[in-house]
Amino acid sequence: MAGHSHWAGIKHKKAANDAKRGKIWSKISRLIMVAAKNGGGDPNTNLPLRYAIDKGKQANMPKDTIEKAIKKGTGEFGAVSFEEALYEGYAPGGVAVMVDALTDNRNRTAPEIRKLFEKRGGSMGTSGCVNYMFAKKGVILISADKADEEELMDLALSSGANDMENHGDMYEINCAPEAYNDLKSAIDDAGIEVESAEVSMIPDNNVEISDPEKARKILALIESFEEHDDVQNVYSNFDIPDSVMQQIES
């Protein structure tokens, strides 16, 4: 899980920077709109909407901005034209990549995503070429200084978690998607601050990247996807050892 955790940490730091520019709010607004459009405006009966609202709260989105996005999704402020699109392919080193997007123009977004793959030494594949390598899971990250490891593990496992891993400065808790809401609520009720929480696509196996230059190319590729306005999430199965990450960051 090291590769996933590295990227989760990178994404968390990046989200903080994006929030200052308001970019992340725009992306989450799309997510809320589409969830409300597909399942209605009540988060109590629409789990994707509840997840999207949670994501907005983590990014410190104002309540009225969230409510406005919900109303846009339900049609109160006009029709929503965004639709979901999933692009699959490979980064350098045979690393699998899935790019989850919300777009109002597939004819524009698909060529742009393909170009980003090719520009950074990757290649976009056909639908289904890599998604079988991933499983949907709830992922909750908590800073190690925010909770006692043993107490957190007891709470997590008794609240539906499958496992918890210690990555030094961060605890990573995984669960089945259907257990996510109860687990997140239990952690919140215990007063434990969460760094990030989402239902994500987790790789069954990771590809270890020991070459720093190749690792830089992979991270640059994924970062370029993250910066694209239509992209909501990027999932990958790279595993960059701590020693290599230190070389990259130095």
UniProtKB/TrEMBL annotation:
UniProt keywords, alphabetically: Cytoplasm, DNA-binding, Transcription, Transcription regulation
UniProt xrefs under InterPro entries: Integrase-like_N, TACO1_YebC-like_2nd/3rd_dom, TACO1_YebC_N, Transcrip_reg_TACO1-like, Transcrip_reg_TACO1-like_dom3, YebC-like
One biological process term in Gene Ontology: regulation of DNA-templated transcription
Chain ranges passing through the membrane: none
GO MF terms, alphabetically ordered: DNA binding
Residues covered by the TACO1/YebC-like second and third domain: 82-238
Tree of life domain: Bacteria
Subcellular localization, as worded in the UniProt entry: Cytoplasm
GO cellular component, one term: cytosol
SUPFAM superfamilies attached to this UniProt entry: YebC-like
Pfam families xref list: TACO1_YebC_N, Transcrip_reg
Family: Belongs to the TACO1 family.
Protein name as catalogued: Probable transcriptional regulatory protein L21SP3_02020
UniProt source species: Sedimentisphaera cyanobacteriorum
